[in-house]
Amino acid sequence: MSDGQEKQAVQGRFITFEGGEGAGKSTQITRLKNRLEAQGTQVAVTREPGGSPGAEKIREVLLSGQARDLGPRGEAMLFAAARADHVDKTILPALESGSWVLCDRYADSTRVYQGEAGVDPQYLDLLETLAVAGIRPELTILIDVPADVGMARVSSRSQKAEGAAPDRFEDEALQVHERRRVLFLDLARKEPHRFAVIDGRQDQDAVEDMIWQAVRSHFPEVDPDEGKAAAKTSESADGALS
Q: How far apart are CA 188 and CA 156, in angstroms?
């Protein structure tokens, strides 16, 4: 099936959340889910790497650091393999059923993380084309925080989780995280029609409201007068996925 044919079959909406470590994506995904469901929208929440049985197995290899010896190109290939399974088994079926899919990371993260590590952009283009099968986000929420702020949150989260160690990508030098932040912002500048950049330094309620405004602006079917009474998630939800 061609990319055009696949897109014609899709009935739902696809929103991705991007950002550096500690941006607060998980909390905001849950809050947006609650708001959308409050106005009767069917929502599926998923994540990358992972989101399907095969992709979750690859996630364990990637985040544990077992794939580090493969180098950035090898890791990029594993991300692409996980993404292909995720699209086939989770994202596309949910969209075809009419659900809105909220995904914690997608192909933009590979462009940033493996791109920062030196992988050729043309190589990443090829892997992305093969993996996503024409399924690309209509809106990408980039929650932007300075690297030092994000990593302070990661450290606090790890302490609260009683010894949970940072994963393979969290455990990098601060300068690496800041370079990733710059690359995310570069992507947003190149595709302003798709990206909504949100200042993640603000409190969770303010961030939630800015995301809701971005969703309302992007999707005319969203009712601006509904979803306001959706329950807020507790702070403990932050980091459940990211």
A: 28
